[in-house]
Design brief:
By secondary structure, the protein is mostly helical. The chain contains 14 helices and no strands. The radius of gyration is 20 Å and the shape is flat.
């Protein structure tokens, strides 16, 4: 007996796993971690229940941004191999469902943050959601190769939110944490985009490797590594952290720089599976987790 492919109407309706997929759980994990670290590094006590609620709100806000991103980009996702199986392009969910889910999740996260923490934390959370959806997704992504440079600010807000949830203000250290993620995003994302540039080209998205080519992208990766490393070490140099964070930030930044130099020096016309670009991308995730973990350890031990 031969199987008959399912038509659009025959597909099973969306379930909780599709709703979860809308929130981009892998991206959310990094957002939640940096937000938690911002909260733990902030001076002053915070009630565990309120702290958990604040981190939950950061997660829900990130999930709302991811859902609204997929709602708006359903047509692009359908053209790219790595995103074609998402709920909307795969036909398991309507765009209206994704829109309602994203808006509802976003509004709920901001209101809950305002009630559990303070107005500033809620306001910064709202700005982060709107920035990702309106500035990055709607305005920049389809128009300019600088999309990830400017749009990367959206992923840099969580430490500010976590800090503000505890203190009710924003000072130099959380601003530097914002700068670290903001400057880290281009080399991190461009290292990945070198491997999926064909997908972006097919979808008509002007990512840097598509518009400027591989060589220029490798050069830009190295260029952005320098201010990123400077921002990473700055909290220690400005005496805002102790020696634990200082040593870790220097070591990790040196390793990142060496890997970026290897990417820049690579003359291969196509990135290889185990080439310097892939190694830099993998280490960039370790780099950010390591920096923020060191910040918390430094705060609690020194």
């Amino acid at each position: 007996m031969t199987s008959v492919p399912l038509t659009q109407a025959d597909r099973l309706p969306a379930d909780w796993r599709d709703l979860l997929a809308l929130t981009k759980p892998r991206v959310m994990s990094l957002v939640v971690f940096t937000g938690l670290c911002g909260l733990l590094a902030a001076p002053g006590p915070v009630h565990p229940v309120l702290g958990f609620t604040a981190v939950l709100c950061i997660a829900l806000g990130a999930g709302a941004a991811g859902a609204l991103n997929q709602w708006y980009e359903a047509d692009l996702d359908a053209k790219m191999k790595r995103t074609a199986s998402r709920p909307l392009p795969a036909g398991r969910m309507s765009r209206q469902t994704a829109l309602h889910f994203g808006v509802g999740l976003g509004v709920f996260s901001v209101i809950l943050m305002d009630l559990a923490a303070n107005h500033l934390a809620a306001a910064v959370l709202a700005i982060s959601i709107l920035f990702y959806v309106l500035v990055y997704t709607v305005w920049l992504k389809r128009r300019t190769a600088q999309n990830i440079v400017i749009g990367g600010a959206a992923g840099a807000f969580p430490p500010l939110i976590g800090w503000a949830a505890v203190t009710g203000d924003v000072t130099t250290l959380p601003i530097l944490l914002f700068a670290i993620i903001f400057l880290w995003t281009p080399p991190h994302f461009w290292a990945l985009s070198l491997f999926v540039r064909t997908d972006y080209a097919n979808a008509g998205v002007p990512m840097l490797p598509v518009v400027a080519g591989i060589e220029s992208t490798r050069r830009q990766i190295l260029f952005y590594t320098l201010p990123m490393a400077a921002a990473a070490v700055a909290p220690w140099l400005l005496d805002l952290t102790g020696w634990v964070y200082g040593i870790v930030s220097v070591i990790l930044s040196v390793i990142f720089f060496v890997l970026a130099v290897r990417v820049f020096a690579n003359k291969a016309s196509e990135p290889k599976a185990m080439g310097p670009e892939k190694r830099l991308f993998a280490f960039s995730i370790v780099y950010l987790f390591g920096l923020f973990a060191a910040l918390v350890v430094d705060r609690w031990l020194i």
